[in-house]
Structures are given as C-alpha cells and as structure tokens.
## 1
Amino acid sequence: MTATSTPGERARALYAVLKNKDLIPEGYIEQLTQLMEHGWSPDNGARIVAKAWVDPAFRELLLKDGTAACAQFGFTGPQGEYIVALEDTPTLKNVIVCSLCSCTNWPVLGLPPEWYKGFEFRARLVREGRTVLRELGTELPEDVVIKVWDTSAESRYLVLPQRPAGSEHMSEEQLRQLVTKDVLIGVALPRVG
Ligand code: FE
C-alpha cells in the first residue's frame, strides 16, 4: 500500500488486519452499518425539537440534561454520550462545527453532511459566521449574535431553534417536518410553508 491509497483501500487493509487478529466481534460491522443507515437520522433530532416546542417540561429537561432527554426516545449510543442542546433566542443563533474534523451527534443528527467536513467551512465559520450563513441562504438580522460551538471536546450538540412564526396551530407531527439536519446544525432556520 502506498501513501496515495484511497480511503477505501486503507479501510479494507485495516479490516483485513483486524479480522486476521480476530479483533472484530461477530456481527459488529453489520450492526454498525444498520445503525448508520437506519438508526442515525435527523428525523430523530426533529422529534426532539418538536417535542421541546410543545412540551415545556421536556424542553426544560432537554436544556438541563440533553443526554437524558434524548435517551427518553432511545436516541443513545456512539457520539451521543454527552448531548448538549443549544437554545436559540431572538438575539442569539447557535451554530455547530467541528473545527478539527467532522464530529456530529450521530444518534440525533445522523452522519455529517459533506460540506460540514470541508476544510473551508470549518475554518471560515469560526472567523466569519455571518457571511458563511448568508452564503448558505440564511440571512440573520444584524442584532442577532452568532455563537459558534466547536465540537472538538466530548460534548455533542444539537441546536434547539426558535419555533417559527406561523407554526402556532401545527401539531407536533407537523412541526417535525420543519426540522432538517441543517436546522439541527444551526445553519438554517425552520420555516413554515
Ligand atoms: Fe470532529
């Protein structure tokens, strides 16, 4: 194997070595693949946010102990050991980044989108968040402070956005549809219609 091998080649080489040493438990790869493809999804985060919008007691728990709140829905596991919900206000917009690599809260957000892993996004969001958000289609009023949270420690974040105007009569089920992966990362706002 050379230094120019692809990630796929490196992964297969690593797999072969681990398999050879009998270090991969039976069914481990299959279970993890199943989780990645079907278990980890921003639909999970959408359920959390919609519940917090309609249930003040759940909202309080979510902000106090995000891990416990998400565990009520069964959203636990790798990269979800210490979940922190970041509350947006009329004057504060939270945004998540991992300036070192690409960590996200897998059980609640799913795997990170491609752009989230990009060097440019990671570097620029910290320096010029307002401009980056504008480029992504999110224009924020000048009096809204943008707070960027770096996921490089143990904490895995999700953004709890403000419930949007016009959603007052929507059911919890309908509210879920407003919450996307971008909303949970904080680069987009939930919008009605
Ligand atoms: Fe990371």
Note: The mean pLDDT is 93.
## 2
Amino acid sequence: MRVSVIGCGYLGAVHAAAMASIGHEVVGIDVDQRKIDALSKGEAPFFEPGLPEILTEGTQSGRLSFTTDISAAAGAAVHFIGVGTPQQAGGYAADLTYVNAAIDSLLPHLREGDIVAGKSTVPVGTAAELATRVSETGATLVWNPEFLREGWAVQDTIDPDRLVAGVPEGPDGERAADILREVYAPAVAKGTPFIVTDYATAELVKVSANAFLATKISFINAMAEIAEATGADVTELADAIGYDARIGRKFLGSGIGFGGGCLPKDIRAFAARAEELGRGESIKFLHEMDAINMRRRDRAVELVVNGLGGSVFGKKVAVLGAAFKPHSDDVRDSPALDVAVRLNGLGANVVVTDPQAIDNARRLHPQLTYVADRDETLRDADAVVLVTEWDEYRREMAPEHVSTLTHGRVVVDGRNGLDAAAWRAAGWSYYGMGRP
Ligand code: UGA
C-alpha cells in the first residue's frame, strides 16, 4: 500500500520506518529539513533502539523516502498524521497548531477514497472537527491513536498490544476500518485486538491510558511519602502488592516520578479539556497525581541537601542520567534533568552524565557541566545522585569501584534502582525514595 506519514518526530519517523518494514511504500514528510536530510540517509535523528536498522533497510530497498514537500503525499491511500501536540504556552491545554497545519497542507492533495489516519494525541472532540474538513475532499478521517513507548517504539509499532480505529458511522467508516486492517495486516493476522469505535472513544482511549499509567506511578510515589513517615520500604510494598494480578507490578516503579513528552502534558491537556466539557470534577484527581509527581523531584533534592549536611553549596554532585527514562535521549520534561538544574540553582557544582542524552540536555540547560564518561563524572564527587536508571548505573556500577573515585560517600537513589544493602556495606550513606 502507498502510505504517507506527516510529521517525522519520535512518533512519525518510527511509524514511517515501521510501515516500510512491513512492506508498504512510504513517504515521510516533515517541515524540518535537517530531520529529513538525516532520515533520507537512513540516520535516526534521535536515539531509538532498532530504528537505524529499519531506516536503512527501508531507504535502501526504495520503499521508504523522506521529503519536506507535502505534495509527495498525493497518491498515497493512507495518510498518517503524527505531528506533535505540545502543552500550550501559558496554559495546560494542548496546542493543536501543528495538527491543523498538517491537515491544511494535506487537504489539496487528498483524493476521493483516501484515508487520513490521525495518530497525534489530541483533546477529545478534535477528530470530529477535523473530519468535516477532510470529508469535503471525499477522503475519510480515522482516529488511530498510538501507544508506543520510547525505547521500545519499533517493537510497539510493528507488534502493538492493540489497535484502535475511531471511525465515522456508516459505510465510509466501515471501509476505512477495513483499509486500516490491511495497513496493519501482520499484527491483525497475529490476532492483535483491533477495536473499531467512534472518534471520541478512540481519542479517549489514548488519553485515559496515559492518565491511568500516570496515576499508577503517582500512587506508588504517594505510598513512598507515607513510607517516609513510617519507616516502611516502598519497593518491598510495590513487590508485595504487585503479586496481586489485579494490581500488577508494572508501572509501580517509585522514585522521582514521570516526565517526558507524553504523560505530563497529556494529563494536563486532559484535565483542561474536561474543564471545557464541564466535567473538571471527574478527573480532578489528575491535578493531585501531577502534584505528587512534582513533589518527588523536591524530595530528591532535599535528600541530597540533607545527605550533604544541610547545604550543597560548593559541593560537587555527580548526577547519573539526564534522559527522562533509560533507552531514550529524550529530555523533554525530564525529572532527571530537573533535579540536576535545581541542585545547580542551590550552588552545587553539578556534573551530569548520560549514555545518550548529553547533547539534548546541553541544548536545553547549557549552564550545567556535562561529561560523557561515567567514572570521570564520579571523580571527586561529594555526592552521587542516580536519576535515570540506565543499566550502566543501576547494574554495572559496583559501590566498591565508585568509592575509589569519589570524595564523599553519599548516594541518593532517585529511581530506587540500587542495592541499598551493598552500598551500605561498602561504607556509603544510601538514601532511597520512600525507603528507610
Ligand atoms: C508513554 C506511555 O507509556 C505510552 O504507552 C504512550 O504511547 C506514550 O507515553 C505516548 O503517549 O506517546 P513514554 O513517554 O515513552 O510512554 O514513557 P513511559 O515508559 O510511559 O515512562 C514515562 C515516565 O514515567 C518516565 O519518566 C519513567 O521514568 C516514569 N516511570 C515509568 C516511573 O517513574 N515509574 C514506572 O514504574 C514507570
């Protein structure tokens, strides 16, 4: 099938390459010439495991191309919209500028019978509005939300947990759903659940899934706060409640909480949309989830300050991690980087390392010092702070080895990823998040 993908960021670039890898003929379109140049050479403009391989394979086979010229979308049977919907400046609602611009630029190139498949995360009600404009060209709009996780994006796109298609009522909707089934034929053939529903439900599936995940993380972090007041250990608590299959251990990872380009802005945009709908009360708890989440960053800073005897001023603090989570170079709303910036603001000499995210972090926060080598980062540090649980820091960093490099023996485990007993046995003052 001929497919176009408009927007080649974390979502669109992976989607374009994944669609080519399952056999479609794909053109990826973006306004950013630098991104297009890199992608055309088979280079991923960001770190995503498995992406360079399928990009190279796709571009070399001739099935995958990239351009800034929107007219290249003409002739494709399905047009995916994968542009960003960031948080509005000065507000919590989603900024739909890029979605509207993508649709406007695509409209003149649509033909009767084309499918426009929206993948961007949008406030509920957006698809219905866009559908009117799209249908004037004889094309049909489908809302097909994306559930990929950064770091596992290729696998999640090719082999998702489920596929959702929000379609209009009637034969056009049925036909559109059939075409999407064809697009995702390998996953459908494997028996992947394919849910055909209305626009509003499809849009809500996406935001409610992210709201649920954010709530799960904030729930365990709220328990961490209670654990701190009682001497309990939140990691053991999470293991114990996680054995209950109804609860499950996934997304009960306590620590400095969630960040990234999705969960924080999505729960805020959802709350803003609910207010507009007169249903603010129904998801008011999301404000609380947001607040718990942000408090955990304060707590990590407090642990470092207390660990260093009440002040970090003039102390060297080695910060391990800058990405919002491991297996990613994404620093958008990264809790890790936020902790580093706050410590820097308190007068610490903060040195940050990360296996992938240093360039992005430096662009955002040039005031911090960045060092690529982990051991160089640790050298002469008064305190060590783990904020992104890369294996390099969590599994492959023996406390005895770190002791040979640092000046102090204070370690703050912002992701509860270290073996507290091993660090204490090596002479360290270990501080976890919600652990005694
Ligand atoms: C999230 C969702 O998991 C995806 O399903 C969704 O498609 C995506 O947003 C999106 O809307 O595009 P992602 O942002 O890649 O994916 O990252 P997650 O793996 O969900 O992690 C989000 C944040 O939560 C990270 O900062 C991570 O460190 C934190 N987290 C995660 C925890 O603090 N504890 C956990 O147990 C799990």
Note: The mean pLDDT is 97.
## 3
Amino acid sequence: MRKSSLFFAAILIMAALMPASAFAKMTNPVDAWNRHFDTWLVVAVVVWLVVTVPMLYFLVKYRRSSRDEDGVYIKGNTGLEILWTAVPTIIIALLGVQSWRVFNTYREVPQDAYEVRVDGFRYGFEMIYPEGIKTINELRVPVGPVKLSLSSRDVIHDFALPGFRIREDMLPGRFTYLWFYADKPGEIRHVYCAELCGPGHSLMQAKLIVMKKEDFNAWVASKKGVEGSASLSQDIRGKELIKQCTGCHSLTGERITGPTFNGLFGRETLLADGTKIAVDEAYIKESIRSPKARIVDGYPPTMPPFNLSDKEVDAIVAYLKEIK
Ligand code: CUA
C-alpha cells in the first residue's frame, strides 16, 4: 500500500500542476503550441512510468514459485477505484481545456495583424501584399503579428511554417487563414508545402524573412517604385517572374515535370497531336495563358493557366530568349 500511495501521489501532484498550465495566458501560436507539447509530454511520461514501473516490479515480486501455487484472492478496493477513475478524468478534462484554448489562440487573429495573401500553385507560393506587390517563394513581413490568407490555383497544397508551429491547407476556390507573431527581425525560416501535390511537391518551398518596420516600409517603397517604372530592364523582371515556373521547368536542361527552359526559344518541338513547331513568342504566350491548348509530346497536361499581365508575359518571353 505504501508503494502504490507513492505513485498516486505523483499523479495527484501532476493533477495539481495541470490547471496552471491549462489556464495560463497564451499570447501567440508558438507559445500555445510549445506549452501544449510540454504538458502532454510530462503527462505521457508520468503515466507511462506509473504503469510500467510497478508492472515490472510486480512481475518479479509476485511470480509463481511452484507449479501448483494459487494466487491470493483479492476483492475490490472501492477507495482506490474511485481514485483511479477520478484523477485521470480530471487530467483529461484539463488537457481538453488546454487544447481548446490552444485552438482559439490559433483562430483569433490580432486586430493589428499585417495581412498577406498567399496563393499556392504547382510548384510554388505567390505572396500578394496589401500594397499591390507580389513576390514568389519569398515572404517578407514586418515585426509583429502577421495574418496569412491562403488559397490555391490548382490542387490542394499545405502552407507549413514549422519555425512558428503553424500549417494549414491551401484549397482551390476557398480561403483559409493562419497567423503568427514575427518577433525577431532578420529571422529567416523555411516554408514548406506539406501536402503531396505532384512530382514537384518536394521543390515547393519558400523563405520567410522578418524585417524591422522601417526596413520593411523601405522595401515596400522600393518594390512599388520598381513595379511602376517602365525603365526597369525586362530581364530583371523576367528573372523574378520565372521563379513561379522553375518548380516544373528547369533552367539547366534537366527533365522535371515540364519541358526544360534551357534552349527553349526556337526549339523544334513535337506536340502531342503529332505536329511539329518551332517555339516562338506566340507559342510561349499561349502556353502561359492556356497551357492545355498545345501540349508538348510526352508531358502530362497538368499546368494551370497563369493570369499574368501583357507586360509580365513580355518580360518572361524576353528572359527566355536570353537563356536560350
Ligand atoms: Cu504543393 Cu505539395
């Protein structure tokens, strides 16, 4: 009885500590998640010890010593039974309270959050900022709370930012959301697609860069200037825009999901319908806007249409001519 009281004492202490953890203030998803994980880890380890240590001890202590030995007949113990029903019930209820609070921390976005729209596509992420700027596979945010509105242009993707303990599906035709608190400037974290979305899935990654407020505003201003100015050299724009294509089209000649861009312009190409063409501006433009119109022989018709402006398409064509 003395030994079993020791184990119940351990459980009781844990039950007493639980409310502190379950009702503590949760300020952002990282906080909430880390606390949640630590609490469950402690509970799991203590429960495991309470079950396995006595079990091993009793196995040895009460092993059968002769072939015809009978075990002692033990009647129930009401007090113990109440205790081992009530204590776990309380622990589970408190874990439930904590889970509910973690869930709410994830769902309640602070009013002053900076909001960025993120579109998933095969295979990359496009960030659309409230100022009208776009970036590919690079998410820049100011220090503070950030809300991400997620959607997809083709199949189901999943935006995962493990450094901030968040992930959420990106669904075509629907918006989902996430938020995190970017606390340190200069922090670079990796964004992954966490839903198998095709052969280029593992290439679907992005970078998060947290900037000081002033630096971020300066970056926004410089980007806006660049987008608006006609003087920007086309290949710089093309080089930026082409990032949304390189998940499927290599620049090196390597065959991935789609035909390589290396030496694309002017290339003799066999189409799926048996005709032969030389790749020209018209074909490139058509393939960006209605990719399924003329498919290259031997490749799957999986590319989604890209809704780019005439200027953007021109910049891409100029860049493709360049890397010929
Ligand atoms: Cu997108 Cu996996």
Note: The mean pLDDT is 86.
## 4
Amino acid sequence: MKNVSASLRLTLWFSGIFLCGFVLFGVVMWIDLAYSLGKGRDRTLNRRATRFIELLRATRTDSPSRRQARFAQLADVIPEGNLIQIRTPDGRRVFPTDDPSPGFPWPAWTPVARPEYSTVNVNGHPTRVLRFPAAADFPMVVLVAGQLEDNRNMLARFTAGLAGAIPAMLVLSALCGYFLGRRVLQPVDQITGTLHSISIGNLSRRLPVSGAGDELQRLAETCNQMLERLQDAVNRINRFTADASHELRSPVALIRAVAEYALRNPEIDIESKEAFSEILAESVEAGLLLEDMLTLARADAGHGTPVTEPLELAELVEDIGARLRPLAEAKKQSVIVRTSGPAWITGERVSVRRLLSILLDNAIKYTPAEGRIQMELTTAKSRAVVAVTDNGIGIPESLLPRIFDRFARADPSRGEVSGTGLGLAIAKWIAGVHGATLTAESREQQGSTFRVEFPLVEPGTPQVTLGHKTEQVS
Ligand code: ADP
C-alpha cells in the first residue's frame, strides 16, 4: 500500500469491508432461507398426513366405496395429491386402491414411532417423503411425498440475485468510499496546500480552524501554534541580525575611514601601505556584507512602504547598462544592451535598479576577460522579460537549485572573485515583492542566463499595491 493516496486506500478498505459484510450477509440469508424452505415443506407434508388420518377416523363406519370417494375428493384438493399412500402394515392398499405413480421409490411399509422424513430422487427430481406413525386405533401406515423442486428453484434464484448484486454493491461501495474519503480528506488537502504556501517570508499566515471540535480542528490548531512559535523565533533571529548589522556598520565604517586616511599619507612605508590596503579592501567587503544582511533582515521583517509606482523598464535597463559598462570594459568584455520600446511595470525604481544591477554585475564578475554579456528587454503576453546572458564560467549543476539561497556560493577553488553570497537572495526577494519571477539557467564553462519576468501594466492604469519595498535597499 506504499505510494497509494489515502483516499484510494480508504476506498479500498471501505469496498473490502462492505464486500465481506455483504457476502457474509448473503451466506447467512441463504442458509436461513434453505432451512426455512425445508422446514416449510416438512410442515406441509405433516399437515397433509394429519388431514388424511382425520379422514380415516371420520370415515371409519362408511362403506368402502364412499370412503374411497372422500379420499379421492381430499386428494384432489391437495397439490401432488396422488403422492399419498395409506396401507395396512402388511402392505395392503387402503388408499389409493391402484398405484397412480408406479415406480415411485416409497420407503418400507413398516410402522414408525414418530414422523420420519427422507429425501428420495425421482427421475432427477428431489422429493421429500414423510412416513407418518399410525394411530393406535388405526394401525395403518401413511406415506406422503412432495417435490422439493420449488425450494431448489427459489434458492437458485436467490443465489443468482446475490451473485448479480455483488458487482453492483462493489461499485456502489467503491463510489461511496471514494466520496467519503474525499470528503474526509478535503480539509487535510486544504491544510497541506496552505502549509505549502507558507514560507519564511509569510509566516504570519494561519490555517483556517473549522470549529468542528474534531481531529482536523486539533491538527489545524497545532499547526497554527507551531507557526506562531516559528514566527517568534524567526522574528528574534531577524531582529538580532538587523541589530548586529546595524551596530557593526559604524565600527566597519571607522576602520575603512582610518585605512583610507592612512593610505593618503605620502610618507607611508611599503609594508604599512600593503597592510592598510588589505584592511581597506576587507572593510569595504564587510561593509557590503552588512548592508546586504541588513536589507534581507528588514525584508524578512516586512518593513517598508507599498510598491505602487509606475516604472518604465527600457530606460532603466539602458541606464544600468551604461553605468556598469566601464566595469566590463575594464575586463575587455563586450556588453550588448537591447530594448524593444517602452515597457511599463509597477515597481520601485531603486529596488528594480538594484535587482538588475546584481544580475549584470554578476555576469561581469563571473565572465572571464573578453567574454560576451547581453542584457535584453522584451515584452510578450503582458509580461516584460529582462534576460541577462553571459558566456562565463557558469554555475555548477549541484548549486543551481539553491542559487537563490542566502550565502549560496560556488566552490572558491573555481578562482571566483569575492562576494557576499547574498546578491541573488536580495534579487529574488525584490522580484517577489514586484510580483515578478526570477529564474536561472546555466551550464558550467558555457555561461548563464538570468531571466526576470515582470507583469506589464498599461501606462496610466490605476496603480496597484504589489508588495513592500524596504527603505534600506540602495
Ligand atoms: P556573490 O556574487 O556576492 O557571491 P550572489 O548571490 O550574487 O553572491 O551569487 C551567488 C553565487 O552564484 C556566486 O558566488 C556565483 O558562484 C554564482 N553566480 C551568480 N551569478 C553568476 C553568473 N552570471 N555566472 C556564474 N556564476 C554566477
């Protein structure tokens, strides 16, 4: 039963139990019916024998011909009336005087103490025979027989009906099981769906609580309590990260200022110059890392103002291309920027600039000298797509699925330039805030393409709130 959905398992269980119950019910009914029919037949034979004995008594003083007439009369009104024999213990016929059913396998004429039943086969037809004890005042043997064919037919019809009903009941029970399973498990599916949509960015979401007081309500409440605790813990970590980054900014800025001041001294000796240059480079790195951490901590905390401004992307793309081009030229790389007319989105200028700068800056950083980089803006189906493509070192296949995670960086042995490992995480977050999707395709040593797709808006349409920008993105 591995890898089988719970509703299918429930359906199978339901159908199995229903089928077993139905078969058991059928078997019990069959046995009961067979017993009742058999008993009924025996009672009928008993009644017939009794009526003949009563007639024997009543006609004791009648002449033999009148007696025969009365017996014949009674036999006429009884179905299978000719299957009656009354004889003296020595076998002399009392009624009927001649045998209307020759060859019938009557049992012996010996008298019995109590009614005795037996079943005989007459030309393939089962027949029940009753040997009735003779009364003390009438020492005669009464034998009555009746066919069991009707009983057999009725049982056969019952069995056929039962066999026909089983597949129908099976289908019905499977449908009922599936319907019940779906009904019972639907809230579980809803809970799963909601839990799926909850991530570190929207931990404030809660599951709907039904109020039915059942297991599902308790499950939803327990999940909500767990989310509460998680949100609390994440908030504390965010606060700590934001506070730590904020507090560290001043000392790092001071270290950087001191290093710059020392390097401006024309009389600085070579060794000190090297040491201060290293301090300056490290402090610049640390400053960038702190800014990125602060940005993400504030993003997680949901600080900021709603994004509602209309923004023209083509002009922004051209501008970013122009601003970063000198970096590429320093590495003798060619940068092609292509746009296809104005494309309006709802976006916050500084944030979108940061997003596209991260992508283009990475392309320049991770592409060797004389490589090719392209930033292209296209519009299609109410989407504006900015694709940044390079023919650089590419991203290892193992890293690609988590490339947007915080601090995800390729193995330093690839001889990569320094970085914080937070740029793409920030880019992804900015894309999310703008209702955009950011995706990456890459092959090692062949190059990468980062694609960000924004929803297009008509210029002049009412502005909508997409998400929250932080005041710190810059
Ligand atoms: P950083 O560049 O500061 O290390 P990012 O989050 O911007 O941080 O990038 C994470 C990692 O993704 C980089 O360290 C690099 O290994 C890989 N990467 C990003 N962009 C590219 C690219 N265009 N080509 C190759 N690798 C890239």
Note: Residues 358, 362-363, 366, 390, 392-395, 403, 408-410, 416, 419-425, 448 surround adenosine-5'-diphosphate (CB under 6 Å).
